[in-house]
Design goal:
Layout: E1 2-7, E2 10-13, E3 18-26, E4 32-39, E5 46-52, E6 57-59, E7 67-72, E8 77-82, E9 91-99, E10 115-117, E11 121-126
Parallel strand pairs: 2-11
Antiparallel strand pairs: 1-3, 3-8, 4-5, 4-9, 5-6, 7-8, 9-10, 9-11
């Protein structure tokens, strides 16, 4: 069983920055897709960014140029650096991981047998 431990959420004014971290614990595999999703009240969960075990990344159009996903392979941590935050970025942010995924990119949604979700971390951006 894999647990995803998220940290780094909080409240910030528009234009500010936050960095989210996601650290998996438990037995993990070297082939994976990891990323971040977000869900605002009354809206569907949407993909924000993803990174695979080769380091290839993808970002949603709404965050391109403002958010950057990266990973520290030595520490096995995935980060989401968020800059130029807007009020519409306010949401619960969820870390997700899938091992041996069919694909990893803009259309990725973890639903396989080795798919895991974090508990979520709140990001609130005030105007």
């Amino acid at each position: 069983q894999v647990q995803l431990v998220e940290s780094g959420g909080g409240s910030v004014q528009a234009g500010g920055s936050l960095r989210l971290s996601c650290a998996p614990s438990g037995y993990t595999y070297s082939t994976y897709c990891m990323g971040w999703f977000r869900q605002a009240p009354g809206k569907e969960r949407e993909g924000v960014a993803a990174i695979d075990s080769d380091g290839s990344t993808s970002h949603a159009d709404s965050v391109k140029g403002r958010f950057t996903i990266s990973q520290d392979n030595a520490k096995n941590i995935v980060y989401l650096q968020m800059s130029s935050l807007k009020p519409e970025d306010t949401a619960m942010y969820y870390c997700a991981a899938e091992y041996f995924p069919f694909s990893c990119g803009g259309s990725w949604y973890p639903r396989g047998r080795l798919a895991y979700w974090g508990q979520g971390t709140q990001v609130t951006v005030s105007s």
